[in-house]
Design goal:
- The structure is a single chain.
- The chain is an alpha/beta fold.
- It contains 10 helices and 10 strands.
- The chain folds into 2 domains: 59 residues; 182 residues, Rossmann fold, CATH 3.40.50.150.
- The radius of gyration is 25 Å and the shape is globular.
- The termini are far apart.
- The N terminus is likely disordered.
Amino acid sequence: MFSWFKSKKTLPAVEKPLYLEDFEDATDIYHYFTHLTGIHFEQKESITTPKLIRFAKGHGCISFGGLMDKLCVDASVREALINLLTVNETYFFREKGQLDFLVHHSKRVGKNLRILCAPGSTGEEAYSIAIVLAEGGFNLLAVEIVSIDINTEAISRASEGVYTARALHRLSQPLKDRYFVMEGNQYRIRDFIKRAVVFQSCNIFEAEFLELGSFDVLFSRNMLIYFDQPTVEKAVDQLTRLAKTEDSIFFFGHADLLITPAQLQDHFEDGIKFYTLKQ
């Protein structure tokens, strides 16, 4: 009858973790990334969020909130995230018709050329332009090609100028022999082509973009497809501000523009679509 007086057994205390992982909602990260780059991830969040979780843990964060805090104060983490999530899949002589038209157009212009690639990814596009101009008889000393990309790893690879056979699958063997040196099973771009291109890390929405100078020809292929319409309009406005003259021409990827921007006039010539500033 006195058993209730007996001391009860004390269960061992369960240690509560000081912090809990929280990777449920990445909305703020996506919004922040879009603000930085203009790139949207609608329809792709299911495959992108696991990458964000691994990225967060790899940078010592146990929540998306913690990652957000780190992104706001650490430029190196921002750069690493941009490098992770920006796409850099390309190859030499992509949309070759535009490159051939460039040679034809530039011969008519008959002057020194400044050409912009925005974005330039890992260098295949800019080097392709240099190759077709060299094949067309141009003196590359009279040509400057500026290739920019927001992805610093892509810029580093472009500056190195080393590619796999897959990247060169559209080039004939004579072109490979003229413009590349074999190194094992890879191809290194020859120095006289490399010297025609300047690579620079740059965000088209930042002030530094407008400091690049003016250009006769502007390529912006397969970038606008990642933007919503207001961001497309903003990007096109930035690009048009770098046109050297009203005769400067613009090339976009075939899926980049759903409608012709207000600042531009579209043209068709020899089966190729290009744009100039609207008069």
